[in-house]
Amino acid sequence: DVKAIALSVDPVDSHKEWIKDINETQGCAVNFPIIADHDRKVSNLYDMIHPSASETLTVRSLFVIDPNKKIRLMITYPASTGRNFNEVLRVVDSLQMTDIHKVATPGNWEPGGDVVIVPSLQDEDEIKERFPQGYRAVKSYLRMTPDPGSNWSGD
Questions:
Q1: Which of 57, 75, 126, 139 could serve as 53's disulfide partner, Cβ 3.0–4.6 Å?
Q2: Is the pTM of this model over 0.90?
């Protein structure tokens, strides 16, 4: 239930050419829309132009916006650093799962890995109901439990 869209300060004709190059050299298909922001209106509104770079060299900014139009994540990469779509998908999986369950995901979490029961959840009966697999307390505030998403699919 996620849609990707890209924004570029390049004109549409340029998009068509570099999409061919990406598809050929990276063994993938760019199959999402790209907005041509040749006048840089959107890029400037979202501070996507690096102040020390040329006016045509954008930073690579990523925004994850939820169905309520709330920005949930922002990542900005310098133009010299490649982006990793698998990391974006991992973050989206985390956001979707943590919205459903009262958990947080640790660094380097992958779907199926242990998660953290949020510290605000203190009621033992609710914890037992939500996490029937149990949990281990690393610290009083750090309780690890198996991914409760065994019935959840973030695909």
A1: 57
A2: no
